[in-house]
Amino acid sequence: YGTLPSNQLKSPPFDEATYWIVKDDTSLREKAGNFEMYTAEGEQLLNQGVAVQLHGQFSLDLAQKSFRITAKAKYGSETLAYPFFEDRPFTEYKAVLLRNGGNDGAYTRIIDSLQSKIVDWTDSEIIHMASTPVIVYLNGEYWGHYNLRERINEHSIAAYEGWSDPKNVDLIKGDNDVLNGSYDNYGELLDFVESHDLATDAEALQTVLDWVDVDNYFDFMIFEMYFGNTDTGNIKFYRRNAEGEKWKWILFDLDWGLYNRNNDGCFIWLDPDGSGSRNFDNTLIRALLEVPELEEKFLTRYGYLYQNFLSDTDRILALMDDMVAEIQPEMGLHFNRWAGETSKLIAFDPPSDPTAAYNYWYNRIYTYTYNVIRARPYYVWGHVQEWFELSDEEMTAYFGPRPENTEDR
Asked: Are 400 and 303 in contact, with CB atoms under 8 Å apart?
């Protein structure tokens, strides 16, 4: 087997593993398959029939695809009865992902997982995806390094929240893509916010505070801003469809986070024209931050997370070292399999030679990403000061003194 836990994924009657390289309407459909999990020493932990389908968006242009593994009764069981993640309390799952690193699949392959693990340190209760590295064999063929992740859907949300009925979860993606339940309540919320001045109408403000979990929403925005995530449209938020239930947000898909040392998270997420390059709706967060006491709450919380967790670059880099060390012994074999098959739609310059590809991966982490992590506290401090028009004294009160720019290794 190897140095990591492994997954055997079989999908009869498709005997050729290369079937799963092609992205088309056929391969995106659910297929019957079998999912096995083994320790690095070869002990079998799980073996059951499952539904298999390709997973992802732009990362589907990579030859090494991500897979969604879903338990269904018609294939053997309604759940995957195994505690995949030691830092989560669950002993069974409806679905998991074998993720290729997403849009980071041609670069570090760990950046999304790294940011989730940073959030693990904090006192935030926001839902975010657990992760563990694995090796995958597809129909008996070595398929390389993957990140085994939680699948965020109505079932996982119900498990986190302790709700008994996943069908009663309203789950929205992006602006208005309904994944489960209904968009109606959230649409009514946005209409209400757009038609009231929350800064001057105390009754309207209280209505919104009863409608939205502001603590959760602010944590979501703070993490997205600090990490500088530019993929502002691929977000998920949810509520239980019942009277008095509040909307909450989920932190996931951070492939474009910690990508650029100078990404201005405040501008990316708070631009009045909409968030990100595609101008996604940000009516709610902008309306909330126009309320002085909520702006104060936001900055206080941001400063707390910044000073106690996010700006601790030594700790973050030590975590990154541990994650790299865990997968490094496997990466030579991985690049022997996949070097030269990276789509130019995903990355422009990965080498096609396996040794050069391995060196590219390692150097990407320990030059580029290393410097981004080191530099973020300095740049974020300046972004917040400029956007919220704060003096040095005010910034120091919230965030502490501005750190030095220590990006160069």
From this structure: yes
Residues in the chain: 409
Q: Which of 60-64, 106-110, 380-384 has the lowest mean pLDDT?
A: 60-64
Closest alpha carbon to 235 in 277, 149, 169, 177: 177
Number of domains comprising the chain: 1
When pLDDT is averaged across residues 146-152 and rounded to a whole number, the result is 95
Local confidence band at 13 (pLDDT 50, 70, 90 cut-offs): very low
Q: Name the amino acid, one letter, at 126.
A: I
Residue 374, number of CB atoms within 10 A of its CB: 21
Q: Which domain holds residue 151?
A: 6-155
Spatial contact of 78 and 72, defined as CB atoms under 8 Å apart: yes
CB-neighbour burial class of residue 36 (10 A; exposed 0-12, middle 13-18, buried 19+) = middle
Q: Is the pTM of this model over 0.90?
A: yes
Q: Assess if residue 56 is contained within a domain.
A: yes
CB–CB of 97/55 below 8 Å? yes
Question: What pLDDT sits at residue 347?
Answer: 63
Does 62 fall in a domain? yes
Residue 308 domain-assigned (yes or no): no
Instruction: Report the C-alpha gap between 240 and 163 in whole angstroms.
Output: 8
CB-based contact 21:63 (threshold 8 Å):
yes
How far apart (Å, rounded) are the C-alpha atoms in residues 325 and 75? 37
Beta strands 177-180 and 169-173: pairing type? antiparallel
Cis amide linkage into residue 89, ω under 30° from 0: no
Q: Which residues contact 66 (CB under 8 A, 6 or more apart)?
A: 54, 55, 56, 59, 60, 97, 98, 99, 100, 102, 146
| Beta strand pairing call for 248-251 and 127-128 | parallel
3-state secondary structure of 246: coil
Distance CA 176, CA 154 (A): 16
Is 64 part of any domain? yes
